[in-house]
Amino acid sequence: MIPKIDSHIGIFVYSTKFPGCGGKIKQKPEDFHVYEVISKKSESQIKYDSGFAVFKLKKQGIDTNHALNSIQRLTGLRLKALGLKDANAVTEQYVISLKSMSTAKPFESSKFTLTPIGYSKKPLSKKDMIGNKFKIKISHANSSLTDFDEYDKILNFYGYQRFGSTRPVTHLIGKAIIQNDWPSAVDYILSYESEYDSKENSEIRNKLKDTKNLASVENQVPPQMDLERLVISELIKHNDPHSAVRALPVNMKRFYVQAYQSYLFNQTLSVAFDSGEDLFGIHENDVCYDSNGILGKFNKGLDQKLAIPQVGYSYYKKTRFDFHIQKILKDEEVTPKNFYIKELQEASNEGGFRNSSITCDDYSVNGDAIEFTLSRGSFATIILREIIKPKEPLMDGF
């Protein structure tokens, strides 16, 4: 049976026959390790005595954005990350200075350490990060982890984190944005309540439902709700929902639209799989990624993986999945053109392609722990979902 939270984010199926071993993850941060992997070519570029400083950021109990904001506040050093890592894990990742320098220094706090490892002549980018290696403990499993052998039959869904986990709302905000429904976008940001959220957060959000009360409630909003505080401040000043959304950081405006795109992709995978489409093989006229990550048409004899369109304003219709996608768009009452947002152009999204399945070539089991490496953009929680088959994912650490 598919958990209710899964259906909220567009996932309606399991792609493996394994009955599930049960158990929980992330009982403590040390149970979930993530190590960022960059290409060999990128590693070889970190060899100079000056330039753009490259650091290893090792953290626990804080997400990437808040760690970088803390570093900037305490040291004045502005850094960018190749990928985002959440708070409830032990993570190691690469971060890069935004300016050329020659005196990179280590820095340490209670939740993270920042260690300089060298300099590159040009800043590393997201393209340099090719994946993440995971080491994850599964506690209280009711059957042997070694019984699972379908790691090559897992659909490449977007995981719970993309949608806000305990408050799966990011895609709803994104849909409101592409529909130019600014009041709804603000309402979702401030007051959308989730049965999975904490009692304290729900109480605050209930107070935020009436925007006439914002001035009296503003000081009660906790610091960790930094985006909400920004929106509230803007509403108090201008009483304009569109202005309040525009005030959000550019990366968040883009993220919300991408989250809705991800929701549509999850639905596409679910419906296509349920309809009997072959999502693990490639066929004539399919669009595919080759072993170097280059997109192209099916070419017999090449090492290729099936790719599925992601909806955006340049959505590519000529695939066997267009029938399913058009039906989903009709039900959602949106069109690809909606992803070009005249009133918020910086959040517009042209679409693209994404692999239909997860590639997991180095899966291994050691006692109650599993290890594997995933390419950039794939979610470890989606593999864990197929192994554990959790009844209540968020209660079980997802």
Task: Describe the 3D structure.
By secondary structure, the chain is of the alpha+beta class. It folds into two domains: 31-132, 2-Layer Sandwich (Alpha-Beta Plaits); 155-357, Hypothetical Protein Yqey, Chain: A, domain1. Helix content is 30%, strand content 20%. Strand 8 and strand 9 (295-297) form a beta hairpin. The longest helix is centred in the middle third of the chain and has 25 residues, at 250-274. The protein is globular and about 60 Å long. The two termini are 17 Å apart.
Summed up:
The protein has helices at 4-8, 40-44, 64-75, 170-178, 182-191, 199-207, 214-217, 226-238, 241-246, 250-274, 322-332, 380-388; strands spanning 32-38, 51-60, 79-81, 90-101, 107-108, 112-120, 129-137, 287-290, 295-297, 304-310, 352-355, 364-366, 369-375. By secondary structure, the protein is an alpha+beta fold.
Layout of secondary structure:
Blueprint: H1 4-8, E1 32-38, H2 40-44, E2 51-60, H3 64-75, E3 79-81, E4 90-101, E5 107-108, E6 112-120, E7 129-137, H4 170-178, H5 182-191, H6 199-207, H7 214-217, H8 226-238, H9 241-246, H10 250-274, E8 287-290, E9 295-297, E10 304-310, H11 322-332, E11 352-355, E12 364-366, E13 369-375, H12 380-388
Parallel strand pairs: 1-4
Antiparallel strand pairs: 1-7, 2-4, 2-6, 3-4, 5-6, 7-13, 8-9, 8-10, 10-11, 12-13
Key phrases:
398 residues, Alpha-Beta Plaits, 9-stranded mixed beta sheet, 30% helix, globular, 2 domains, 4-stranded antiparallel beta sheet, Hypothetical Protein Yqey, Chain: A, domain1
